[in-house]
Write a structure and sequence with these properties.
Blueprint lengths: L22 E2 L5 E5 L9 E2 L6 E2 L4 E4 L8 E2 L4 E10 L5 E9 L20 H11 L11 H5 L9 E6 L8 H8 L1 H15 L3 E7 L3 H11 L6 E5 L8 H9 L14 E5 H13 L5 E7 L7 E6 L4 H8 L7 E4 L6 E2 L13 E5 L17 H5 L6 H9 L3 H6 L10 H5 L6 H16 L4
Parallel strand pairs: 1-14, 9-10, 9-12, 10-11, 13-17
Antiparallel strand pairs: 2-8, 3-5, 4-7, 5-6, 7-8, 13-14, 15-16, 15-17
The protein binds iron/sulfur cluster (2 copies).
The site of one iron/sulfur cluster has 14 residues, from helix 9.
Length: 438
């Protein structure tokens, strides 16, 4: 089975939801759409308080190229535009929408658009208008990836169906239940970029997803579905490329430098929804799981739904100690559940023990486990020590900026040293120092 070197094998914890069909989350009263829920500049509202909006209607437009649009997840009325709490704990501008209790909330599909008839520039604008982002968690605007610069080419299109984080099964269910949409979106993009090879990488613990994708691919699509070893962080772009092609994206470079473009499976289904039905990115599948959830689920949730409503719907144990947005390795512990589900929210995990904090830190045993875990071949132990000593120049020379913050080193450390947290904070400081002064 193909894979990359190093990495870890955390317990999967996927059994509670892997077999559960996707269900639609019932509509709630209010939705909060932060204007910045993607990498880049926040979107700009094009509606005002009191305006009536339809489900799927554009409510905020991109500002500049690295920015993307936002559409209303419901038919209703703009209740407010102002500062609202975001999952990171800070405040940010958001559009609050009150759902119309009498609306059917059915999305009216429109005529499809033939992506192949568009120029690349038009295609990129379409994707930006749909508000598509990488749905694996990074929320990088998809159209920016598709705007291949002059003189460059994408020869290999890689679709990421690894879903290597424990607990999460939203992509798994999507590949099983919407395999046609995944393949359809993939073929739309592949045709537009005139790629030579298409590979979907799926970890071997999802045999039904592999089978479903292969069954659709056999219907005249030139798509290879490649089973991969179950290992974390297989879903990281550079690791996936290593596993599939045995090629390494050099430090500081991008997959495009190897003529490769990587996209998540959910983004491909969303791309098909836009070109085939004109459905913008207004909802996504979210895994709700963890020891503190009464009804673990894979829910189709409108973007902007308050986390509190999702948890109320699934039921949460009174002993709950921590709620994480995303996976347990790279997700974000929430300080408040009065924050919305975003385009990049793959999971809501409820823990009855604190999963992310690791008390009782001991001195480094020089055991080397963190080095064995790091698939980027960094020296996490040394980077953590340099970070504590604030020796940022040395950290940079030791490739600290190549750390993808996967957390494999911290997970494996017997001394509970918060390695990834130390490196993450130091990276922020290194970038701050390198940024041009105003
Ligand atoms: S968090 Fe960074 S240093 Fe630690 S294992 Fe991942 S890439 Fe390596
Ligand atoms: S795993 Fe922890 S204890 Fe072992 S070398 Fe790395 S930092 Fe030190």
């Amino acid at each position: 089975m193909r894979s990359f070197r190093h990495g870890i094998h955390p317990e999967e914890h996927k059994e509670a939801t892997a077999h559960l069909p996707i269900e639609r989350m019932p509509f709630v009263d209010r939705y909060v759409l932060p204007l910045s829920q993607h990498t880049g500049a926040p979107a700009r509202p094009i509606v005002q308080r009191g305006d009536a909006v339809e489900r799927g209607q554009l409510v905020a437009e991109p500002v500049g190229f690295v920015s993307t649009a936002l559409a209303s997840p419901v038919t209703g009325r703009i209740a407010a535009i102002g500062a609202r709490r975001r999952p990171g704990g800070d405040l940010g501008e958001a559009i609050e929408i009150e759902a119309d209790p009498f609306a059917t909330q059915r999305f009216e599909s429109q005529d499809p658009v033939d992506g192949s008839a568009l120029s690349l520039g038009e295609f990129v604008s379409e994707v930006q208008r749909a508000g598509l982002v990488g749905m694996g968690g990074a929320a990088f605007p998809s159209h920016v990836k598709y705007a291949v610069p002059e003189g460059r080419r994408v020869r290999r299109l890689v679709i990421n169906g690894c879903e290597c984080e424990p607990y999460l099964t939203c992509d798994h269910r999507l590949m099983v239940e919407r395999s046609e949409a995944v393949i359809r979106g993939t073929s739309i993009l592949a045709e537009k970029l005139e790629v030579e090879e298409i590979v979907i990488g799926v970890e071997a613990n999802k045999p039904d997803a592999i089978e479903a994708l292969r069954a659709v691919s056999a219907n005249g699509y030139d798509v290879r579905v490649a089973p991969l070893e179950v290992k974390y962080p297989q879903g990281a772009e550079k690791m996936l490329i290593k596993a599939l092609f045995r090629e390494e994206v050099p430090a500081g470079k991008l997959p495009l430098d190897l003529d490769i473009l990587v996209n998540n499976v959910a983004t491909m289904a969303a791309l098909a929804d836009w070109f085939d039905r004109r459905l913008p990115l207004i909802e996504r599948v979210v895994t709700v799981a963890g020891p503190g959830v009464r009804s673990p689920s894979n829910l189709l949730v409108p973007i902007g739904t308050p986390v509190r409503d999702v948890l109320d719907h699934c039921g949460v144990d009174a002993e709950t100690k921590e709620i994480v947005m995303g996976g347990p390795m790279m997700g974000q512990p929430l300080a408040s559940i009065d924050v919305p589900v975003l385009k990049g929210t793959s999971g809501l995990l409820v823990f009855t023990e604190v999963a992310t904090g690791r008390p009782n830190e001991y001195t480094c045993l020089k055991c080397g486990r963190c080095l064995e875990a790091c698939s980027n071949f960094l020296n996490p132990s040394r980077l953590a020590r340099l970070a504590r000593a604030e020796r940022y120049d040395e950290m940079e020379r030791s490739f600290a900026l190549d750390c993808m913050e996967c957390g494999a080193c911290s997970y494996t450390c017997p001394s509970n040293i918060p390695i990834v947290q130390l490196i993450r904070a130091a990276k922020t400081e290194i970038r701050r120092r390198k940024a041009p002064r105003p």
